[in-house]
Specification:
By secondary structure, the chain is of the alpha+beta class. Helices cover 33% and strands 28% of the residues. Helix 1 (12-25) packs across helix 2.
């Protein structure tokens, strides 16, 4: 699982935009958006940098959370 901290998510439209952007590069990706926490979790076989680029290209400031900093 890849985890991203994403700034600027405020509503269901943001959730759909990010989910759509990730699934545009991997239609089978599972995307979980937590607007309140500013976090996006993605299950995909695509590299982290490609997923991060897809999120950023939607207009959000985002960064990948290193695996060592995740609690799961």
């Amino acid at each position: 699982m890849q985890i991203f901290k994403v700034e600027g998510m405020t509503c269901a439209h943001c959730e759909r935009a990010i989910t759509g952007a990730v699934q545009a590069i991997d239609a089978s990706a599972q995307v979980q958006v937590d607007i309140a926490a500013g976090e996006v979790r993605v299950h995909t076989t695509h590299p982290v940098d490609q997923v991060l680029e897809a999120i950023i290209n939607e207009g959000y400031k985002a960064e990948a959370v290193p695996a060592a900093k995740t609690s799961r």
